[in-house]
Amino acid sequence: MSRREFEAAAESAVTVLGLSRSKDLAGLLARRVRKERALAELAAPRAAEAVAQLYDALEGDSVPLTEAAAYVRGYVAAMLRARDRVRVRTVWSGPSTPGVPVRATAQVLVDVIDAAHDELLAMTYAARPYPALTRALTAAAERGVRIHVVVETLSGAKGLLAGREPAEAFTSVPGLSIWHWARNPDGHPHSRQHAKLAVADRRTLFLGSANLTESAVHRNIEAGVLVNGGEAPRRAAEHIVELQRLGELKPLRP
Fold first, then answer.
1. Which BP terms in the Gene Ontology apply to this protein (predicted)?
2. Are residues 118 and 171 in the same domain?
């Protein structure tokens, strides 16, 4: 096999294994662990074929195991740099113009939810059941994502919200935790929980004007910013978690 085929096999293995398990692969290669043991230690759906192809490629091109380990570590480092690179895009819903492409806010929210593997934090003022978002949240919960949603309440809105409690939009999602702002009764009487955002795994942040309602995410003119990488997603998530710890945000039980 050519060196190019070995490099392609290494890229494929890292892509399939993900960053954490690719580090494990690099460690096995550095210790000169042979293919059969590596396959046993990295057992996972889809992983066996990619790891086996990598071992076959490095053997066919006489690449030493220690050199392969260094290459895998380099590839992991490059992926980490790419992940942490800050990318900012504006997101618009509603009428389009020639110079600004319009991408439905609903789809961006679904993409952010779908990107979560460990943690999803969201805040909204109003909320109504919306099937696309409910399906995405349910799928995230089923794959083990910890989901926390902060909502306003009818009592907190003091007549500016009508109908059912916003929290009821999420009651069908298993394991989802609902929070609200526990205002100081001696504070400002007209304060609102008006933030609208979603953070996935502290790496992706969507911050915008849209509530989690069908009209807001699908029919209105709404504007937002999608941030991938950098400090903003992490700091937003840390702020929410700290507000929970301090008791400013408290669990809400409808």
1. lipid catabolic process; phosphorus metabolic process
2. yes
| Structural domains in the chain (count) | 2
pLDDT at residue 103 in the model: 67
Q: Give phi and psi for 99, each to the nearest 5.
A: -90, -10
Per-residue pLDDT, 207: 95
pLDDT block averages, 10 residues each, the chain of length 254: 77 83 90 89 78 87 88 85 80 80 78 94 93 94 95 89 91 95 78 94 94 80 91 93 95 74
What span, in angstroms and rounded, lies between the C-alpha atoms of 224 and 209? 6
Q: Is the CB of residue 196 less than 8 Å from the CB of residue 109?
A: no
Q: Tokens 């195991």 correspond to what residue?
A: 65
What's residue 1's pLDDT? Answer: 45
Query: For the CA atoms of 176, 230, 109, 240, what is the dihedral angle to 10 degrees?
Result: 40
Please give the torsion angle defined by the CA atoms of residues 160, 164, 170 and 174, in that order, rounded to the nearest 10 degrees. Answer: 150
Q: Where are the alpha helices (DSSP H) in the chain?
A: 3-30, 35-41, 47-60, 65-84, 105-115, 131-142, 154-157, 214, 231-246
Among 33, 51, 84, give the residue marking a domain's end: 84
Are residues 67 and 91 both part of a single domain?
Answer: no
- The per-residue pLDDT for 101 is 64
Q: Is the full-model pTM beyond 0.70?
A: no
* Residue ending a domain, choose from 41, 69, 84: 84
User: Angle of helix 47-60 relative to helix 65-84, nearest 10 degrees?
Assistant: 130
CATH number of the domain that residue 131 is part of = 3.30.870.10
Question: In which domain, by residue range, is 150 found?
Answer: 87-251
Specify whether 32 is located in the same domain as 139. Answer: no
Give φ, ψ of 13 to 5 degrees.
-65, -45
pLDDT of residue 194: 94
